[in-house]
Amino acid sequence: MRRRTLLAGAALGSGALLAGCAEEDRPGRDESSTAAVRLRERAARDSTALLARYDATLAAHPALAERLRPLRSEVAAHARAFTDDATPSAGGTPSREPVHNAGAPSVPAEERAARSALADAERRIADTRTRELLAAPPEVARLLASVAASGAAHAYLLTEPAE
Prior knowledge:
This protein is mostly helical and 163 residues long. It contains 5 helices and no strands. α1 (2-22) packs antiparallel against α5. It is elongated, with a radius of gyration of 16 Å.
């Protein structure tokens, strides 16, 4: 069942990429529109909140570091992707990792439950991004689709038994 979910997420992402390409001339789908900027800002906040969840989980369960650090690194890259392209002054300067000052999320005491909580968060955000694809301008839609597919893969990996 998990593999089907992962494959469905990838298929949705691919479909969104094609839809974004086909609707480039549609009015109101300007990459710099206020709606597009708000969509990117919301996606960046979601990624930053997810990053804080990864950090809290790593702090509570250091034994999960090997498994979580690569996923956390990708989430940090997603947050940067949503902010770097939207910032006209970014112009090739190296970006810093997103800052997350929100209170640390609660983390279950048991490792498996902690991984499950991360997987749930990844799924929720991936689902939100998938829903937002239809209203997004083409470039934002492609980015949302890519990051949503990555989130679905993360959710899958987080729920797989440790080897």
